[in-house]
Amino acid sequence: MQRLLSNPLRRTALTSLCLLFAAALFTPAISAQSPNKDVKFEVISLRPAPPGIPNNFTINPTPDGFVSTLTGYQMIMLAYAHEDFILWAGMRGSTTLANAPSWVYDGFYISARVANSDLQAWQHQGKNNPLLRSAMQALLRDRFHLVLRQQPSVVPIFKLVAAKNNKLKPANPNAIIPSPHGTLPGGGLLVSDRDRARHSETIHFYNTTMTDLANELTGFVLRHVDNATNLTGRYDFTLVSIDHGGNISPEDAADLLTLHELGLDLKTVKGQGLTLHIDHIEKPTPN
């Protein structure tokens, strides 16, 4: 565990994570479904990265391939993890890695390109990037000789619940939204006011569903949050949080939110997880 906490690539991810919801805001959930089309990188350059904080960490494809600095762990999670980046980057998600050698947490430079015949599909693969997942799985098989088993597991998750006398106000269709603002997947908007002196952030949500709120809370507490409020409307509300730096428990992180003032709460329950058990993996030959 100490190695994971000290890993510079993990610290880079957590730095972006712990700017509260801003880091999670535009991160799409990564689907566990298999892509409709299997794609392999036609050209791959893979080299060890020296220790230190990388400046080109990304999980998004380029127009013709993929360029990034990732650990072996991050490559495997990008290829196979059920949940979105915000969770597996913080190593708090429902997908875990088992039987991994220590070097899997070392970094690698990746520069890869798909074939011209795959470019159109690659450039229109959708926000969940299923073709990138497919190509990364092939890269791991071909260059790392990865063999793994996917085993169901039981993990703690949160359920977002609402009191009957909650204080949520229906969305005002005539509300004036300050700029700049972020757009949530469900169509809601949010505006963030950060108080650096108090290490806190005030988030104003507009026209927001509870499902979108659950997704945003996932990024803050670093644990999957399900919407169990049974509230189907859209609401305007404000949350205040205290920055936590990422190295506290999800329960403690939840206590740093003003959910109770809205009549909301996070309850710990058992949820479905996935263990990726490595049967075989080899260090790739650099090129």
Helical residues, percent: 10-25%
Average per-residue pLDDT, rounded, comes to: 84
* Biggest sheet architecture: 5 strands, antiparallel
Number of domains: 2
Brief write-up:
By secondary structure, this protein is of the alpha+beta class.
What does this entry look like structurally?
The chain is of the alpha+beta class. The chain folds into 2 domains: 2-153 and 274-280, no CATH class; 155-272, no CATH class. 24% of the residues lie in helices and 32% in strands. The protein has helices spanning 2-6, 8-17, 21-24, 72-80, 85-88, 119-123, 130-143, 210-221, 250-255; strands at 41-48, 65-71, 95-98, 107-114, 147-162, 169-170, 182-183, 189-195, 200-208, 225-227, 235-242, 264-280. The strands form 3 sheets. Strands 6-11-9-8-7 form a 5-stranded antiparallel sheet, with helices on one face. The protein has a 4-stranded mixed sheet with strand order 3-12-5-10. Strand 7 and strand 8 (189-195) form a beta hairpin. The longest helix has 14 residues, at 130-143. The radius of gyration is 20 Å and the shape is globular. The two termini are 31 Å apart.
Q: What tags apply to this protein structure?
A:
9 helices, disordered N terminus, 287 residues, four-stranded mixed β-sheet, globular, 12 strands, alpha+beta
Topology:
Elements: H1 2-6, H2 8-17, H3 21-24, E1 41-48, E2 65-71, H4 72-80, H5 85-88, E3 95-98, E4 107-114, H6 119-123, H7 130-143, E5 147-162, E6 169-170, E7 182-183, E8 189-195, E9 200-208, H8 210-221, E10 225-227, E11 235-242, H9 250-255, E12 264-280
Parallel strand pairs: 3-12, 5-10
Antiparallel strand pairs: 1-4, 2-4, 5-12, 6-11, 7-8, 8-9, 9-11
Helix pairs in contact: 4-7
